[in-house]
Design a protein that fits this description.
Layout (H helix, E strand, L loop, with lengths): L1 H25 L8 H32 L8 H31 L7 E5 H16 L3 E4 L6 E5 H19 L5 E7 L3 E8 L6 H7 L15 H10 L3 E7 L3 E9 L9
Parallel strand pairs: 2-4
Antiparallel strand pairs: 1-3, 4-5, 5-7, 6-7
Helix pairs in contact: 1-2, 2-3, 3-5, 4-5, 5-7
Subcellular location: Cell membrane
GO molecular function: ATP binding; phosphorelay response regulator activity; phosphorelay sensor kinase activity; protein kinase activator activity
GO biological process, one term: osmosensory signaling via phosphorelay pathway
């Protein structure tokens, strides 16, 4: 029964999300959303919230099976269990992305700043993505802890979506990498690929509402990513050329003197 309910909620979420994305593509950036798109947003928010709990339970059960706590699995069963865990994790990430975007559509939410090791956060995100996407993602996070006062959930979602967009957009043979550096300005998280790159028109469209650098992108758009980074007092730098790959750098600043941050 729970599985049927979860599948039904997932179908509704995907349908509402598709309507929302189509509405974005059809309206000018400055226009207010029409009633149908506003309704889709409300449905996406509700379903994204409702779907996380049953999917988290499914994922937890799958992880217990993967650990073979109830008993040993054969190779085929392990493959099935891995598919369950990986895809529920992927959809939970989508739901969290839609909820985050809904919060920003409703106005600038308060940041839940805590002391976060940015290098550790990048490592955790890349490891999880490697497992789900079955795609090599190179990681360079050498160095000691790089601690900043940031909203960990938001920065994780920014990195998750930048990586997802790079993997989808760059092409199956492209190399995708993440690098975390410490500079005089702060922490720099770089997501790079050596794939298709973007021409000037595609780059300009990147920061339009819903823009992701890929026509099939379904995560939070670059406009929301930019607002999240801006709220942290940071900035985004895009370096791209058609057929030469793309580098997107997120710069998160050190705390201002006196402990005040932007």
């Amino acid at each position: 029964m729970d599985a049927v309910l979860g599948a039904g909620l997932l179908g509704l979420l995907i349908g509402a999300a598709a309507g929302l994305l189509l509405g974005r593509a059809r309206r000018p950036a400055a226009a207010a959303p029409p009633p149908a798109v506003a309704a889709d947003r409300a449905v996406v928010r509700m379903l994204s919230h409702e779907i996380r709990t049953p999917l988290a339970l499914v994922r937890g059960a799958g992880e217990l099976l993967a650990e073979e706590s109830p008993g040993p699995l054969n190779r085929r069963q392990r493959s099935f269990v891995a598919t369950i865990v990986d895809n529920t994790t992927l959809v939970i990430g989508m739901a969290e992305g839609f909820l985050l975007e809904a919060r920003w559509d409703a106005g600038t939410p308060a940041l839940d700043r805590t002391a976060v090791d940015v290098r550790a956060l990048a490592r955790e995100t890349v490891l999880e993505l490697r497992r789900i996407r079955r795609r090599p993602v190179e990681l360079d996070s050498r160095g000691g802890p790089l601690v900043l006062e940031v909203d960990a959930g938001m920065i994780r979602q920014v990195l998750w979506n930048l990586l997802g967009n790079a993997i989808r957009h760059a092409g199956p043979e492209a190399r995708v990498s993440v690098r975390v550096d410490e500079t005089v300005e702060g922490a720099v998280i770089e997501v790079a690929d050596d794939g298709a790159g973007m021409d000037e028109q595609a780059r300009d469209a990147l920061f339009a509402p819903g823009g992701s650098g890929h026509p099939e992108g379904t995560g939070i758009g670059m406009d929301v990513i930019t607002r999240i980074v801006d709220a942290h007092g940071g900035r985004i730098v895009v370096d791209t050329l058609s057929r030469r790959g793309t580098r997107i750098m997120v710069v998160l600043p050190w705390p201002a003197p006196g402990g005040e941050e932007g």
